[in-house]
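Quick one:
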Amino acid sequence: MNGYQDKNVTEAPRTEIEKIKDLQGQLRRDIEDSQKSNDTEDRFDTIAYGTFSMLLARFFIRHGISANTVTLLSLVVGVCGSAFFYTRNVWVNLAGVVIEYFAVVLDCADGQVARITHTSSQLGRFLDGLVDSVNFAAVYIVLILRMMNETVPFTNIRWSWGIVIVMTACGYCHGEQARMADYYRGLHLNFLDQGNVANFTSSKKIKAEIAESKGTPLYNRLYLRVYYFYTRAQERLAPNAQRLLKAIEENGGVITAELSRAYISRSRKYVQLTNVLTFNPRAYVLYLLILAKLHPWFIPFNIIVLGGLMFFMISRYEKISKEVYDEFFAG
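Output:
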């Protein structure tokens, strides 16, 4: 009798452990399946958000909630969290950081929902980037209101309305950095997939969609026009990439295995810069500075440090595009 009882006592916990391990293994596989690529995924983000966001993604899929709806939910949560940065109370600020964490989890979940359900779309990608920008814009506005009555570091001069100009410049630099990071990450993924360059988002492609959008809902026509100017701004800062894409298009439009290897072997060295210049690393620094009451120092960090990284990224990727063009199409 005792032997029978001992057997049950020792086996039951082992069964539960196996169930937990199976669940963990399934979550890891789901996370890997929902990633864009190993090259472009931020390892820290995967650890910090991946499991939680996948659990939420499963919940949303089970209840028929679309990826775009999750994106908009992320926007609401993020904007609400930014309000907690107005006060100088560190505990209230910390609550804001926690709320912003959940906004980022939702932001990760929307992409997972889209990729798992095969509902990724150009509109979804646009909304995802727009939500990141609006969330950060909300934080900038709250910081403007907070800093107007604070003094410039090392002086007795109040920021007053001058902070509006400074933070506007900060936001502009942020937008340029995120825009170009998005462009080069997309280019890397396109070469990695060895697809047709016609699948890569371009202002020419969007212009054609605008011409065909008559009679579609107003929001669709409006988003296409905004996206057109967004894409044109990216292309103006990447002339060598444009020349390479045009050459591929004129030679059949397909990215061959040789072309892919030539580009990816060079791009892989710098692709993680595209993560640094988007949302999360910038947010980590900002939240830490807010909690330490050193938030004015985010301005030079954003403009000088991240701005310098953006120009370095552009120079590297433009050099890569020129080298691949010269190797395959020059002469």
